[in-house]
């Protein structure tokens, strides 16, 4: 959020004029070499919540970053004590910088919990994926050849499936307005578009 080009409020207003709707912000994570299929593990994940949840979480997030004099938050920098968390930038010794990083990460995580944002993630063993494609003649027909597109599609399908499982069609609740609203509520998938893989996946998903 700290270095986002568009606010949560703006994202939500692109899809819903009112508060009735669910937003999912998708992102892809991998080890340093998870580049065009050369890495070992590819992980895709998403935060899920109502527009108001994201807006309020962003507000609290920005307040917390300003409180700690941080321009943005990046988990890898926090863990490695680099960038915004480098001891030299913080003017702290390494041990104090580590303690500071742990405190900030805990406080930011608490915001997500307080706003009841959901999360979902899944990982792919890239070596196994490449092996299956190489050894199984029909594997590309089933899985495709691009692990990023495959995993994002899996994540989207799994999200929809989980919502259907949690709110199945129930004749006894046909007059329950709140329940029916949850069953028919629109679901918007938003890609964090700063990586070439995500731009490519987003175009692929929109074209289908």
Task: Explain what you see.
- The protein is of the alpha+beta class and 208 residues long.
- The chain has helices at 8-15, 51-67, 75-80, 87-90, 94-114, 126-135, 139-143, 147-166, 177-184, 196-206; strands at 22-30, 41-49, 118-125, 187-191.
- A four-stranded mixed beta sheet has the order 3-2-1-4.
- The two termini are 29 Å apart.
- Residues 28-33 have low confidence and may be disordered.
Topology:
Blueprint: H1 8-15, E1 22-30, E2 41-49, H2 51-67, H3 75-80, H4 87-90, H5 94-114, E3 118-125, H6 126-135, H7 139-143, H8 147-166, H9 177-184, E4 187-191, H10 196-206
Parallel strand pairs: 1-4
Antiparallel strand pairs: 1-2, 2-3
Helix pairs in contact: 1-2, 2-5, 8-10
Oligomer: single chain
Structural class: alpha+beta
- Main sheet characteristics: 4 strands, mixed
**Number of helices, where a helix is a run of at least 4 consecutive DSSP H or I residues:** 10
Radius of gyration: 20 Å
Helix content: 40-55%
State the separation between the terminal residues, measured CA to CA.
29 Å
């Amino acid at each position: 959020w700290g270095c986002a080009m568009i606010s949560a409020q703006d994202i939500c207003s692109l899809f819903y004029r009112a508060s009735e709707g669910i937003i999912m912000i998708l992102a892809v994570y991998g080890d340093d070499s998870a580049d065009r299929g050369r890495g070992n593990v590819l992980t895709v994940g998403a935060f899920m919540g109502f527009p108001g949840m994201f807006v309020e979480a962003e507000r609290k997030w920005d307040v917390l970053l300003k409180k700690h004099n941080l321009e943005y938050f990046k988990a890898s920098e926090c863990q490695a004590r680099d960038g915004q968390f480098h001891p030299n930038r913080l003017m702290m010794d390494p041990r104090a910088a580590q303690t500071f990083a742990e405190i900030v990460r805990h406080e930011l995580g608490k915001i997500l919990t307080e706003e009841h944002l959901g999360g979902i993630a899944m990982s792919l063993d890239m070596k196994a994926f490449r092996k299956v494609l190489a050894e199984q003649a029909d594997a590309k027909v089933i899985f495709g050849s691009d692990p990023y597109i495959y995993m994002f599609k899996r994540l989207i399908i799994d999200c929809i499936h989980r919502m259907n499982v949690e709110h199945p069609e129930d004749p006894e609740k046909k007059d329950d307005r709140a329940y029916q609203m949850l069953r028919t509520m629109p679901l918007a998938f938003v890609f964090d578009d700063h990586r070439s893989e995500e731009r490519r996946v987003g175009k692929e998903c929109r074209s289908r």
